[in-house]
Structures are given as C-alpha cells and as structure tokens.
Amino acid sequence: MHGRVKIKSTAQQEEEKRKEREKKLKIYVAARDACFSKRKEGIWDDEALQLTQQLLSSNPDFATLWNYRREILMHLETVKDEDEVQKIYEAELSFLESCLKVNPKSYGSWHHRGWVSARLPRPDWARELSLCDRCLSLDDRNFHCWDYRRMVVKMSGVPVDQELGFTDRLIGSNFSNYSSWHYRSTLLPLLHPESPEPPSPCREPPHSSPPPSPQTHSHRVCEEQLLKEYELVQNAFFTDPNDQSAWFYYRWLLGRAEREEMISCVYVSRDEERVAVAFSRPVNAQSVGLLLVLDGQPQRVEWRSVHPRFKHSPVWICDLPPGTISDITNEHNLTVHWTEKHTHRDCALYTGRTESWCRDSATDQELFRSELSVEKTSVLQSELQSCNQLQELEPLNKWCLLTIILLMRALDPLGYEKETLAHFQTLKEVDSMRSAYYGDLCSKFMIENTILKMEYAEVRVFSISDKNLTTLCHLDQLLLVTHINLSSNQLQQLPPQFAMLQCLEVLEADNNSIENLEGVYHLPKLEEVLLKNNKISTLADLQPLASCPKLKRLDLRGNPVTQTANIESELAELLPSVTDLLL
Amino acid sequence: MAAEDLPSEFDVVILGTGLTESVAAAAFSRVGQRVLHVDRRSYYAGNWASFTFSGLLTWIQQHHEEPLPEEAQDWSSLLEEGEELIHLSHSDCASIRNLQVFCFTSEEDEEEEAPNTTEEETGGAAEDSECADSTEEETKETGEEEEEVREEEEVREEEQTTPSAALRQSEPTKKKISYAQLLKEGRRFNIDLVSKLMYSRGSLVDLLIKSNVSRYAEFKNVTRILTYRDRQVEQVPCSRADVFASRQLSVVEKRKLMRFLTSCVEETEEQRAYNGRPYLEFLRDRQLGDNLQHFLLHSIAMVTEDTPTEEGLASTRHFLRCLGRYGNTPFLFPVYGLGEIPQCFCRMCAVFGGIYCLRHSVDGVVVDRDSNRCKAVIDSRGQRITCSHFVVEEGYVAADRKRVATPTRFLSRAVLITDGSILPSDSDQQVSMVTVPPIAAGCPAVKMVELCSSTMTCMPGTYLVHLTCQSVGSAYEDLSPVVTRMFRTPESHDQETCPSVLWCLYFNMTDGSGLEAEGHNLPSNVYVCSGPDGDLGHELAIRQAESIFQKILPEEDFCPPAPNPEDIIYDGDNTSSSAGGEEEKEENDGVAEEEKQEEEKEMLEEEKEMLEEEKEMLEEEKEMLEEEKEVLEEQNLQTEE
After folding, report:
1. Do B612 and A20 count as a contact with CB atoms less than 8 A apart?
2. What is the pLDDT of residue A366?
3. What is the Cα–Cα distance from B589 to B49, expressed in whole angstroms?
4. What's the topology of domain B9-95+337-405+515-565?
5. Cβ separation of A2 and B613 shorter than 8 Å?
6. pLDDT band at B112 (very low <50, low <70, confident <90, very high)
7. B635: contact with A, CB 8 A cutoff
8. From 1.10.405.10, 3.40.50.720, 3.90.930.50, 3.30.470.30, which CATH number describes the B218-332 domain?
9. Segment Disordered: which positions (chain A) (predicted)?
10. What are the tens digits of pLDDT across the range A72-126?
11. Which of B385, B411, B413, B567 is the most exposed place for a label (fewest CB within 10 A)?
12. Residue A195: its pLDDT value, please?
C-alpha cells in the first residue's frame, strides 16, 4: 500500500543480530583473556582497571574480576596519596552504581561496594543511605540492599529513632514486608527497653552502646511503646488478615522474655543412691562444669543424660558411690553448682526420708503463664477483644484464630481451655494442611494446663486422659511424677524424653496407638505398665522395658504382639521381673 | 508553512484536532492512508487544548467577541455536474458560553492589602466580567516590565515590614501572589479546557501503550483521592497502603472496606439480585456504615445515589482494576496538561506522513448527488481536494445538519488558581482527585482535580483547580457555591484555613456525549467526532475514533505498535530526511518532527545495542560460571580478612 512503512523481515533481523552478537563476543572474550593474563603477570595498572571496568559494567557478576580489581585498588592505595585514593574510590562507587543498574541483585557489586565504602578515606554515608533508599523503593525485598544498608547504618551510626522512622516509611508504603517488621523488632528494644532504667540516649549509635549482656538484656519493649505497636500491627492485619508478616510481628510483640538459665530441680533418691538434676534448658552436663558437693565434699561422679540418644538434655543423672547416702539415719546436704553460669541449687536429705528434692515449679517460674500486672491484663484483654472482633468478620482466618488462642493462653490458660479447644477444632478444619501441627500445638497446651493443675493440687499424679494428645512435651517438668495417666489419646510413641520421668511408678497408657516404647528406659521405680489396646507388634518393641528393674505388672491386652507364638515364654525370658502379665 | 501546494488528493481529510480526530488521524496515517489534518484555529486540540495563562486570556477574549457573520463564499465554480456543496460552520462559539472571569488578588504586588479592599474591588469585577477582562489585558502590557525591577526591592521591604505585619494579623504573613505575577509567570501555566484523568487501565492508556505514542509524553500519578463531606475535605483510602495508613477509619471499618473491595472484583449471585435497584441500597445492605458508604458511592464508584447497582459495581470494578498499576490511585495525568495528548497523536500521524495545517479550514463538502457520498472538500483557500473520507469535529457541522433538535447538553466548568492545597500534607506536590457530592438536593455532583506545580500546569506556589459537572444552570450558578464553600473568596465566610482563590474562570462547554444518540444528516462517508464529554475518563473519544476507523478500514489493525526505527528500511539515499518515503509537511510550532524522529531512532538503536551486548555476555557467562564458582570461594576467603 502507498506510503506504508517497510520493515525488515524477521530473518533479516535475526541475521543482523547474530552478526552483532558474534562481534561483541569476540571483543568480550579478548578483554577477558587480557585481564586474566595481566593478573597472572601481577600487573596492577590503570589499563587493567579499565579492562575490568569494561567487562564488569556489562556483566557485574564476574567475581574473579572484582577480586582482581580489589588487588589493583589495594596496590594503588600504597602508591597514591589520600586525596587521590579518595578520588579513585569515589569513581569506583559511581561505577558500581552503573553495575547495580544492570543487576540490582548482583552479589559481586554489593560486596564490592561494601568493601569500597569501608576503605574510603572520607566516606559519604548520607549518599550511601539514599542509594539504599532508592534501591529499596524499587524493590523493597532486595536483601542485598538490606544487608548493605545495615552495614552503612552501623558504620555511620545512624540514630536508632531515625531508623525506626525508616521502617515506618517502608511499612507505610507496603506493610507486607518481613524485612521491615523484623528490623523494627531489633530497633525497638534498643530505643524503648523494658527495664525501668531510663532508656539509652537515642542519639547514641547502636554499636557504641555497651554490649547488652544476655542475662540482663531482655529484648523486650516497654509497655507504652508496646501499645503503639499493637495499634500499628492491628491496622495491618485488619487491612489484610491474610498477610503473614504482620501476624508474625504481632506474635513477637506478644512473646515473653527468654527464660533465665538456672537449675530448676535437684532430686535425690536414697534407695538408688542417685541424683537427678533438671535445667531450664537442654545442656550438655559433661561440658558445662557441673559440680556435685555432698556434705561439703566435692564428689567425683559421672553425669549421664536420661537416654543415650541425648547429648543435650534438660535432665541429667548421676549415681553416687555405693554406700554414701544409703544409711537412712543419716542426714545429707547436697549442692549442685553450675559453674559456667555461677548458679547452684541446694537440697537436703533428712533422716528417715528415702528421697528429697528442691525445685522451682513451673508455676514459680511462670513458665506457661506469667502473673500479669493489672495494666498488662487490661491491654491483653483489649487485644483479645479486637481479635475477637476481627474473627467475627473473618471467621475462617487462621492467623486470627491462632492469635486468639495465644492471647487466651497469656491471659488465663485454664479459664479459656474450652474456647481454646474449640478454636483448635476450627483451625484444623480451615487449614487442614496443617492439622497435625495444630494437633501437636494443642497437645502442648493441654499438657501445660495439666501441669498447672497438678501443681495447684500439689500432687505427683499427672493425669491427662481423653484429650486427643498427639505428642508429649514438657516431660522435664514431670521429673517428680509417680503416676501418669495418658489413656485414651492418640499417642504413637513414648519418646526417649519419657525417660526423664525418673520417679515414675505407674504408667497408664491404655487406648492409644503406641508402637514404640523407647522412652520407658531405665526408670528405676517403675512397677506397673498398662498398655491395653495399643499397637505394639513385636517383642523387640518391648525390649526397653527390660531396663526397668522393678517392673512387676504389665498389661498388653489388645496389642498385636499378643498374637506372637510362644509369647508368654518369650516375655518371661525378656522381662523376668514381671509377675503379673495380662495378654 | 504556506499551504498553496497541498496535494489535491488524499485518502482521508480530517478537520479539527481534538482528541478523537487526532487519534483517528494517527490510526489512518499509521496504516498508510494519506491524511490531511487541518484545524481552523491557531492551536492544536480544539476544545481539548491547554493554554498558558496569557493564551487562556486570549482564548477568553476570542470567545467574548461576537464573530462577524461571515459571508459564505461561492465555490460553485469548483463544482462539477451532479455535485452539490454542504457548507460548514465557521465559528465554534456555540460550544462555549457563559464565560465569567474573576480576579480576587491584587492587580499589582506592591504591598499586602487588607483583605477587605480586595473584596470590594473584586465585588465589582464579579458583576461585570467584561470589565475585569479589559483590565487584565492592560496589566498584561504594563505589569511585566515593572515587575522585575520591583521584585528585589520587595524582598528588602518585606524584611522590614514583616514584624509589624505579623502584629497586625495573627496568621503568618504569606504574601499573596498578585495578578501581575500570574501574568509574568503565565508561561508556567498549562490550563486545560477539559478536565479529565487517565484511568491507568482505561482505553486511552491502553492505546498509548499499544501504539507507542506514550513515548511522546510524560505522566504523573494522581497521588490521592479526596472527598468533601460534612464541610471537610478527607482523604479516601483506596489502596491497601492507604487503608493501612488511614487515621479516619477504625480497624473494623478497614476490614469491612477491604472485604467489600475484594468481594467486588468478581460478580456474584448476591450482586445480581440487586440489578436495577440503586447501588446505594446495595451498599446499605452490606452494613458498611456511613463513612465507607460515602467513600464507595461518591469517590470510588463516582456515581449518584440512584445509579443502578450493576452500573455502580461496574465502575467500582473499573476503579479497582486501575489501582496499583502505576501507583496508589487509579489515575494518571499528563505532565504539561491534557492538551498534550491530542498533539502526541498528531505527531504520530505526521511521522507516518500525515500533513498538518493550522489556521486552515474546510469550507464545504462536495457531495455527489446520485451516490450521496462526499467526493472532495473545498478548503478555506478555495482549493478542491479529492478525498475518500472526511472526518469532522462536530463544532464545524452547521445546526441544520443535526438530525434532532433536542436541546444541547452542557458541562459546567470552573478553573481556579489558588494559593494552597485544599488538604495540606507533608508534600506540597500532591495531585488530587476530589469528589464533591451534591451539596444540596438538585445540585450536581462535582468532580474536582487539584494540580500542583510539578505537573507543569501552574506556577510554583499555586495550585490549579478544575471543577466539572453536568450543567443545571450556568457554570457560575452550578459551581460557585462549591467554590465558596471550599475556598476563600470574597463571598465566603469564616474560612481562614481554606486556600484563597487568586483568579477564576467559569464557562459552559457542550457535552459531547449527547451527540452519538442524535446523529447527523450527512453523507455516509462523512464522520462526525463529538467534542469532550463530562466523564472523568477518555472512553468516549477513543471508542469513537476506533469505530470511525473500523467503518473505513474494517480489515486493518487500529494503531499497531510503531516499528523500531532500526527495523525500518529506507529508500535510497534520502534516509536522513524522510521517515516513511512520503514527504512530511507540518506546522508544528517549530517542532521539527523529523529531527526528533532521527534522534529517537539513534537513541533506540543505542539502547538496543546495549541490550544485545548484555544478553551475549550473560550467555557467555553461563559457560564460565562453573569455573568461576571455584575461584570465587577461594578468593572470598582471601578477601574476607
């Protein structure tokens, strides 16, 4: 048609492009080879600088060339004066900017930038910060930039409050940003610490403030600021309740201080001449400097964990030399020192007693529930109210349900038990992919509640039947329990941790799906094991029981193992102490 | 350019350079049609134009003058046997009426004037806009030179007088910008006759992208949506970030709003049940509360209380679809004003060989009596130009050719130059879309756009405010109550905090959306383009241009992407002077199209090369990467320390 623009055919275009490509490739390869040979010869001159620049500006991910470049720059540092070095490095920075435009996520470019910035005689941190801001505004999840930014902030001592303002801005433009929320969680404890002491001066750069010692520093935030944060994060999850980042931040806000490291319990048994020690966290007693002093005499004892599987465990035991405490008419004073943490715990075994212990209970330690101040209670109450409000609007939102459960636990775990269970039920339905996770979490909470109930009642009986338990946890808290009832749950095993129940005499676990008894291991006082209607199928599964010297009564009715040929004689051989066997 | 030697034959002759005509011109030219594009006026874009301040004053002046009833020239000598001539109208004054101009700032900027003096003075001006006009013309002449001399003195003067001034008035002494200053800085203004915004997924934006015409212009995001409610200007939270940051909404409202917006995106059975019933009813039944209901109805759907649900939902969806493509609001605005857009399409047309003549009209259409088809046109210089199709802006069509004589609908427009934003914020460079629901029963809903100086439509320190609504009475009657309420004018009371109006213009313009239904008594190959309509977007104009194009060339693609300059094959040696083999003629205010085109071509070529280079390197690199990895680990160890 008249006047129509004629356009080259695709084949023509392709051909031209191919030729162009070949030409470019030749140039590139030649430059690369030149660089390599120069480096081999150890030449650090301007030409090499230019060659690497030429190559890197089109391909900033060429790590060898960056290294070569650094060698050259380090060499130049030794021969030029400071002003010249400053100039060279400034040129390097603007060259890097062009590389970042080619690939804003190039490891090589960012690493080199960090290196240059650190060596620059007179760094211009403000410029670096604004570069980061620009990059983050293009892609707020560019973690290279986040990393570099952290370095810049550290080097230049940007005030913490200014950094908090920075996260405000980023969250304001898009709150779906883990990096910003997380950054906030590291800044807030610095700016508004929980401690009653006056907050550290804001102007002070974070790196020059005294390094907070792990014991005293709580990583927590003062209540006033917490309230503001609750409001902020609520705005986020009410706006978009399906965005996880805000919920995770909220959980951090609702979290509690890390537990103090301590010896939580020392138990001594006269009969077994044995000492058991429980710690607030799993430790390796062989390497933490554990010292047992009996009646003023340090004892050479061998500490072992309750099960050979554990190198780290919250419960450790040791046997005293035979005869040391066996005389019931003697009184003994015991001290366990945790030398590494400068802490210890005493325990007295009085005349006529067969056992004794000294401990902080879960309630004392506020493990599962803190005694809340009136203010805090009302804050949490209102948080719970707003979450309930959101739940009314979004009845099927899993994050909301989960948060409600956590709030209820913080407020009154026993009082809200029924609601908690109902919410778990809904959670399993709306998020069926994670129903096992919810089952385990629910089990954990039920066990915590039962521990609390047991301690309020001041008994050594732990009974948690018919609660849909899928897993066992907090077993270190059950060191003193003599009687445990786990019947009618969904347990599949008694895990190695079960061996922490050093005082256990009676184990009831009827009507579960237990296949594995690994944790019923060296329980010195265990006499009775009831395992009716479980899934124990082979004699080998019963092997651990052989390590319990006092086992007399065993109920295996309704287990596949009972169908084994010669079961009775086999069992008599395996468990000679058992006198009362039900099959 | 003198147009004595216009070719005597074209495929399409287009009269009028408004948006519809310009888009059509670009589309025809792009597929190889020979296009002659003319406009009687001395500027592009007709009623879609943007003017500098003095340009606008001239335009006002022109519309005040009664056009001399021009004698229809006798072109019968140019007609052949069996042909007749349809005369075209010469004046487009019919499309603009009720012009009124007010100046509320001091003429000269000597000293701070007490507010009451201003009031008196402008009170008079309000009564007689003609009078205001004439004084404007005078100050334009005299004001400019004096200005420069005085400015330096002022600074000193101000320093001295500030303390006493501060005592006199409690408010901070902010010097009001004088009329003389407006005139002096007049070139910084680009005042649109039509006030529209570009929906970021509307047909105009799609077309700009598809055709590559977007490269001729720059755009800015509208930064916020505001609404006027309970005598207060509030920000409407519409994006996720807005909702999150909003301080007016409770968290529950936030959730309800987000839920509603998400649920709107798809059509549901529940929504269909409301078809035919008012959207307001649908909103009410969602129990959203007054706040959200207002936002959704007036600011997001931008409909009235009795709009049917399906329509309300459709426009809500459109709004939401446009959200987040380029920013936090659904709208874009072209830097330098909307008048740029038609010109961009004209440029595209010219690049592909279209011929342009301004101040050049078509006097009549030569019609073959038997076939009732247009054979040629006779231009204002008496040249007979053969054409297969004739596209014409409605303003040129004489009234007797309009089929139905229903009373024409009008739009009411107001243009204000103010000294502050209607809702001050951290940034003074906000571009705001403001929806103003009817302030009383029977009043029209007003759409307001506030432009800041970075849109290059007004001088720094001022804001350009456009108000638009469907006419009920004259523009002044319709819009001045809104202006009085929301701004400080001599008529307003107790509005110390509102921005002051420095200067304003009211006028009515024919509403182009009325045309389609009516139609014209014209030959079948004559196509009429309506002028601007009252909608916020550009759907009507683009739809019309496309349908005219489809009628004429049903087989052809409408504005396909322009090819890359490097892929164009040039004839012989004249590659440097011609882009399409066809000679270009233009009168484009001295803008040399060809040069531009060449420049662009070179730049694009360079860019292409660079891209190619990178690609290759990457390919090459892949092979080397394996080798590199090992080296890297080694060396990282070295450099770490």
Report:
1. yes
2. 74
3. 15
4. FAD/NAD(P)-binding domain (3.50.50)
5. no
6. very low
7. yes
8. 1.10.405.10
9. 194-220
10. 999 998 888 889 999 999 999 999 998 998 889 999 999 999 999 999 888 899 9
11. B567
12. 60
Contact yes or no for A492/A513 (Cβ under 8 A)? yes
Distance CA A486, CA A467 (A): 9
Write out the H or E segment, with its range, that includes residue A30. Answer: helix A10-40
Report yes or no: B254 and B246 within 8 Å, Cβ to Cβ: yes
Provide Rg for chain A, Cα atoms.
Answer: 33
Per the CB < 8 Å rule, is A3 touching B569?
A: no
- Residue A388, chain B, CB below 8 Å: the answer is no
Contact A173 B241 (CB under 8 A): yes
Cross-chain Cβ contact A7/B568 below 8 Å: yes
Q: Which residues contact A31 (CB under 8 A, 6 or more apart)?
A: A51, A54, A55
B327 touches chain A (CB under 8 A): no
Residue A455 at interface with chain B, using a CB cutoff of 8 Å: no
Chain A touched by B243 (CB under 8 Å)? yes
Tokens representing B593? 């199209």
CB pair distance less than 8 Å for A175 and B639: no
Q: pLDDT tens-digit profile of A153-169? A: 998 888 888 899 999 98
CB atoms under 10 Å from CB of A17, counted, come to: 14
What is the domain partition of chain B in residue ranges?
A: 9-95+337-405+515-565, 218-332
Res. A301: pLDDT tops 80? yes
Please name every residue paired with A318 in a beta bridge, in sequence order, or none if there are none: A275
Give per-residue pLDDT as tens, B344-377.
Answer: 999 999 989 999 999 999 989 999 999 999 999 9
- Is the minimum CB–CB distance between B639 and chain A shorter than 8 Å? yes
Please check whether residue B353 touches A, CB under 8 A: yes
Residue B619: what residue type?
E
Domains and CATH numbers, chain A: 10-183 (1.25.40.120), 229-255+368-438 (1.25.40), 263-359 (2.60.40.1130), 459-582 (3.80.10.10)
Does the interface ipTM go beyond 0.85? no
**What's the pLDDT tens digit per position in A319-354?**
999 988 988 999 999 999 998 888 999 999 999 999
